[in-house]
Specification:
49% helix
C-alpha cells in the first residue's frame, strides 16, 4: 500500500522547509520516557522508519526508536562502540524488520550538541544518507531541536509533526524494554493512537450534533417569526370587523338607555294608534344588533370576509328603525340627562360604557357592599358578564 500523508497530526513549531519530518506518537512517548534515565548520563537512541518523496516533497517518517545501550558523550565528543551497534542491528531485525534507519537522537542535560564535532563525526559515519535526521532533547527542560542532513551538513529544522496511528511494533518494543528504562511491570503501555483516534471521532460527532442543533434552532426561530407575522396580519385584517362589532354594541347601548319618560311616550304613541311597524322598541333594537353580532361571529367561523359588511348592514338597519321621538338636538340632550337621573334614582339601573358592578354599587350606594345583592337580584352568576344598556334591578 502506497504511503499517504497522515490525517491525524499535531504540528510542533514552524514546518516550512524540507524534509517534512513526521514522528509517530509512540516514538515521541518513548523518547520522553528515556529522559528520566538521561538525568544521570546521556542516553542515545536510533530512529527507524522511511525516507521518501511524497507529492514531490521530501518526507521522513519516524515510526520506531531503539535505545543505544552503550554510548558515551562527554565534552562534545560522542562514541558508539561496534558491539553496541551490532546489538542494535539485531534488535532492529527483531522489532522493526520492515523499516530502515532514518536518524538518531541524544537526550542529555545542558546545551544541544548538534554542532559538535563528535555528533558530526558519528552522523557522517553511520547516517550519511541525505535527509537523515538528528534529534537533541533536554533531559530536564521541555526543549528539543531537529536537524536534517542536507547537502552534507546538519541543518536545523523549524518544526515537525506528531502523527497518530496503529504502531504495534513500537508498542511491543516498549513493553519489552519497560524494565530497562525504569518503568514498573504494573504499568501498561496505553494504546494512545486508538485513544486519540476515538477522541478525534468523538469531537467530530459532537461538532456535527451541535451544528444540527443550531440548524434546528434556526428553523424553529424562522417558523416562530412567520407565525407572529401571520397573527399580526390577521389581527390587522380583522380590525375593521372588530370595530363594526364595537359600533354595534354602542348603538345597542344608545338604544336601550332611553329614559322611562321616553318609553312612556312610546306607549302613549302606541295607544294613540301607531302600529307595530311604526317604531322600533328597545327589545327590537337589542334583537337586531344581537343578530348582527351573531352573523359576524358565524362569518368569522366560516372564514368569510363579508361578515363585517353583514354586521354593518344589520347595524344600519337597527339605526334606521330607531324612532326619533324628539324634535331637536337640545331635546335629545335633555332626555339623555333625564335617563341618567332616572336610572340611578329608580328601582333599576341602566349599564353605561365602562361600568362594573363595583362602580355601580359605589355610584348608587357609595360603597362596594351591594355587589352581591345586585347579582342575586338580577340572577347573575358572574358579576363581570354585564353589557352596555342592560337594566339591573336595584336592591
Amino acid at each position: 500500500m502506497e504511503r499517504e500523508f497522515p490525517k491525524n497530526v499535531k504540528q510542533i513549531g514552524n514546518v516550512c522547509d524540507e524534509p517534512k519530518i513526521y514522528v509517530e506518537d509512540y516514538v515521541d512517548t518513548y523518547l520522553n520516557q528515556l529522559k528520566e534515565k538521561a538525568k544521570s548520563a546521556p542516553v542515545g537512541a536510533v530512529l527507524t522508519g522511511e525516507i521518501l518523496k511524497l507529492d514531490g516533497q521530501d518526507v521522513v517518517y519516524v515510526a520506531g526508536a531503539l535505545k543505544l545501550c552503550e554510548m558515551e558523550a562527554a565534552g562534545g565528543d560522542v562514541k558508539i562502540s561496534g558491539e553496541a551497534w551490532d546489538k542494535l542491528e539485531e534488535e532492529k531485525q527483531r522489532f522493526f524488520s520492515g523499516q530502515e534507519i532514518v536518524g538518531w537522537c541524544i537526550i542529555e542535560e545542558g546545551q544541544p550538541a548538534g554542532l559538535s564535532k563528535g555528533v558530526k563525526r558519528i552522523h557522517e559515519k553511520r547516517f550519511r544518507r541525505e535527509n537523515t535526521v538528528f534529534v537533541w532533547r533536554d533531559a530536564v527542560l521541555d526543549e528539543e531541536a531537529f536537524y536534517a542532513n542536507k547537502f552534507g551538513e546538519l541543518m536545523q529544522m523549524g518544526g515537525h509533526y506528531i502523527f497518530y496511528e496503529k504502531n504495534p511494533s513500537m508498542q511491543n518494543y516498549m513493553i519489552n524494554m519497560r524494565k530497562k528504562i525504569g518503568v514498573t511491570p504494573s504499568e501498561m503501555v496505553e494504546d494512545r493512537a486508538a485513544k486519540n483516534f476515538r477522541s478525534a471521532v468523538k469531537e467530530k460527532m459532537e461538532y456535527k450534533e451541535q451544528k444540527q442543533s443550531a440548524r434546528f434552532a434556526y428553523v424553529v426561530s424562522v417558523a416562530l417569526v412567520v407565525v407572529v407575522l401571520v397573527i399580526g396580519i390577521s389581527t390587522i385584517n380583522n380590525y375593521d370587523k372588530m370595530e363594526a362589532v364595537q359600533n354595534s354594541l354602542e348603538a345597542l347601548s344608545q338604544t336601550v338607555s332611553r329614559p322611562a319618560a321616553q318609553e312612556a311616550d312610546a306607549e302613549r304613541q302606541e295607544e294613540d294608534g301607531l302600529g307595530e311597524g311604526d317604531a322600533l322598541t328597545s327589545p327590537d333594537a337589542v334583537e337586531t344588533v344581537s343578530k348582527a353580532v351573531t352573523a359576524k361571529e358565524d362569518a368569522d367561523d366560516r372564514g368569510e370576509d363579508s361578515s363585517g359588511d353583514s354586521a354593518k348592514k344589520n347595524e344600519s338597519e337597527a339605526e334606521v328603525n330607531i324612532p326619533d321621538t324628539t324634535d331637536s338636538q337640545g331635546g335629545q340632550q335633555a332626555e339623555g340627562a333625564d335617563a341618567e337621573s332616572a336610572s340611578s334614582e329608580g328601582n333599576y339601573y341602566v349599564v353605561q360604557k365602562g361600568d362594573t358592578l363595583d362602580k355601580i354599587s359605589i355610584k348608587i350606594y357609595g360603597n362596594r357592599d351591594s355587589v352581591d345583592a345586585i347579582c342575586r337580584m338580577n340572577g347573575l352568576t358572574d358579576g363581570n358578564l354585564i353589557i352596555i344598556g342592560q337594566k339591573l334591578m336595584l336592591p
